[in-house]
Design a protein that fits this description.
Length: 654
């Protein structure tokens, strides 16, 4: 009966989370951190920060964590913080947006990116109660463009979060709020033990770092394979997504309930009160489970509890005999399996806590093995193991160091924690990318790395443009029929605008054309919607444009060509594109290397980069190509130029 009750309850919670994500907000599934990284890198992520996503993320996270699944709330909290920041910046959801005048100051891409960055930092602060760690997480992991103003804004946001958290912890100190606020602002305090280490202790510390890097890269590798399998299953439809989530939930319940029967009962310490050992409540150590009075089941203590209490148990200091090594090994193996198969199902999920539990388990096992040779407590080995596995999988260092410092409240751990993080990250980088980079690749998000590949120096943008279809251009005064045809038959979001028969400047050949600028697809759709047509070819005056369009209308990006109806008579009319054209687009010469173009594209935050010819002459087009983010992704370039994969072969060919 106990297993049936546990399994059915977990299935119900999982079903609620999965149905909400599958049917109402698919973007709420997963952690959300890779998508936030992509958005702050300049990638458009539709419906990622909407009101429906926020509500489903909150309710779904509660359901998924309550179901006992091997996932954390930290990743979803980062996404929740970003959603709240985005909605506040734009005055609420699209259908019920507040039209306050001062909100227009934040109605631009830069301020929206800053708000979402502050939201991500606040989410980390709320998850780990780590204000400085949240700021550094935003700096190291999610933000692409950073400036001094953003530093104090994220710090101010996390300061507000920690003050509000402290206030609620004080209000809930009587226990009326359930488990909220357990541990105060220090979630996993290990400051009660004195940290002493000798030169010989550097050896196990280095070993922990190496193991963390190897295991982290192995975890990334196998998780990549599992996510590819899940993608094939999820493509079959909504029912398959929900069924996959329920199967994982049932398997998790069976493991959590069945495995503690393998553990032997351990007698309670006589110095402990009967109310402390054994226990059967929702929190606390020394779970009685199937043991008689006066005994506890150490494996049930780790498995049948909340994730936060599981971390506290395995981080616990001065408890060298509390957990049997075999049971810690079972716990580690189980969480490795559950961590691989739980992440990727259609529920809100985080990676932080599962990785912390896996790392803490092998860290504690190493501490048990080194008990006779070291003065470092087993609980501190567990802390170092958790830090090493997170660095080996996520490849973060500075932010993780501060987060663990604020989590554990033990400054004496700082030197060896830094060594462990650096070694684990270095070892992990030798094998594969970080877990978030792998997820970005699987989702097909065109994320631009900070550093171009070395082989990009051997390719110029002119060659890249030649491998693409010819660029589609518009004339300064264009026929409506051609504009409609271009919008219906292409998916481009920007079009170069050129003028024919320009009066030549000094030294310019007769008959040369002029590049006037670039016009966005959204502006062309606005022109068609407003019916801003001319019966004859002529230039319009500035006042005519101001009468027809407002700045708010031109800032919208929602219009689609399918929503526009144009009559046959209107097809024969003309549109003056000059007033709506960006006359100062970023351009590069066709002989520039792809590496330089990529650095320019990323650092300036561009959407389009025009390629100009090296020579100007009659008959030579003023623009030879246009680069977008997709064109600069290394994977896409290698598909067009396979010989670049083999540098040795390229050198022989030259």
């Amino acid at each position: 009966m106990g297993f049936i009750f546990l399994a059915v309850t977990n299935l119900l919670f999982t079903a609620v989370a999965a149905v909400l994500c599958v049917c109402f907000a698919p973007t709420a599934a997963g952690p959300g951190i890779p998508e936030i990284k992509a958005y702050l890198n300049g990638v458009d992520t539709p419906n990622m920060f909407g009101a429906s996503t926020l509500i489903v993320k909150i309710v779904g996270s509660i359901g998924a964590v309550s179901a006992g699944l091997d996932l954390g709330k930290e990743g979803p909290l980062v996404h929740i913080g970003s959603c709240i920041a985005s909605l506040l910046g734009q005055g609420g959801p699209d259908n019920y947006r507040v039209k306050w005048h001062w909100l227009r100051y934040m109605n631009n891409d830069r301020d929206r990116r800053d708000l979402i960055t502050c939201g991500a930092a606040s989410g980390v602060c709320a998850a780990f109660r780590s204000p400085v760690g949240g700021v550094l997480f935003a700096l190291e992991e999610v933000a692409t463009w950073w400036r001094s103003a953003l530093l104090w804004r994220t710090f101010f946001s996390t300061a507000i979060v920690v003050v509000v958290l402290r206030a609620f912890i004080e209000i809930c100190s009587t226990g009326e709020c359930g488990l909220f606020g357990e541990g105060g602002l220090i979630m996993f305090d290990v400051s009660t033990v004195t940290v002493t280490y000798r030169w010989m202790d550097i050896v196990p510390v280095v070993v922990i770092g190496i193991i963390g890097g190897v295991l982290g890269s192995l975890y990334n590798y196998f998780l990549h394979k599992v996510l590819r399998l899940y993608n094939l299953i999820n493509q079959k439809g909504k029912i398959h997504k929900i069924l996959l989530s329920l199967v994982v939930s049932l398997f998790t319940s069976a493991c959590l309930y069945g495995l503690p029967f393998l553990a032997k009962c351990t007698p309670c310490d006589p110095s402990l009160a009967d109310s402390v050992c054994p226990t059967n409540g929702r929190s606390g150590n020394f779970k009685q489970f199937n043991c008689p009075d006066g005994y506890y089941n150490d494996l049930a203590t780790l498995l049948l509890t909340t994730n936060d209490d599981a971390v506290r148990n395995i981080f616990s200091t001065n408890t060298s005999t509390e957990y049997h090594p075999l049971n810690v090994l079972i716990f580690f193996a189980l969480y490795c399996i559950l961590g691989l198969f739980t992440f990727g199902i259609a529920v809100p999920s985080g990676l932080f806590l599962p990785i912390i539990l896996m790392g803490a388990a092998y860290g504690r096992m190493l501490g048990i093995a080194m008990k006779s040779y070291t003065d470092i407590d087993q609980g501190l080995y567990a802390v170092l193991g958790a830090a090493s596995l997170m660095a080996g999988s996520m490849r973060m260092t500075v932010s993780l160091c501060v987060i663990f410092l604020e989590l554990t409240n033990n400054l004496l751990l700082l030197p060896i924690t830094m060594i462990v993080l650096l070694i684990a990250k270095t070892v992990g980088d030798c094998f594969n990318p970080s877990i978030y980079e792998i997820i970005l690749h699987l989702k097909g998000l065109p994320f631009l790395d900070a550093h171009p590949e070395p082989w990009m120096r051997n390719l110029n943008v002119g060659e890249l443009a030649d491998a693409k279809p010819p660029v589609v251009t518009l004339r300064g005064i264009e026929k409506v029929e051609w504009i409609v045809e271009v919008l219906r038959n292409t998916t481009h979001n920007g079009f170069p605008v050129v003028d024919d028969a320009v009066v030549p400047s000094v030294g310019l050949a007769v008959g040369a054309t002029e590049l006037h600028g670039i016009i966005l697809r959204a502006h062309l759709v606005q022109v068609l919607k407003k019916k801003w047509f001319l019966k004859e070819r002529r230039r319009t005056e500035e006042w005519e444009v101001r009468e027809k369009f407002t700045a708010v209308e031109l800032a919208e990006r929602e219009g689609k060509i399918e929503e526009v109806a144009v009559t046959s008579d209107e097809m024969e009319m003309y549109v003056d594109l000059h007033p709506l054209t960006n006359t100062t687009p970023h351009t590069v010469i066709e002989s520039m290397s792809v590496a330089k173009a990529m650095v320019l594209f990323r650092q300036v935050g561009l959407r389009h980069l025009l390629i100009l010819p090296k020579y100007e002459a009659a008959g030579v087009p003023p623009v030879v190509g246009i680069l977008t983010r997709q064109d600069l992704i290394a994977y896409n370039i290698l598909n067009a130029f396979p010989h670049l994969k083999n540098p040795k072969g390229r050198e022989k060919g030259n």
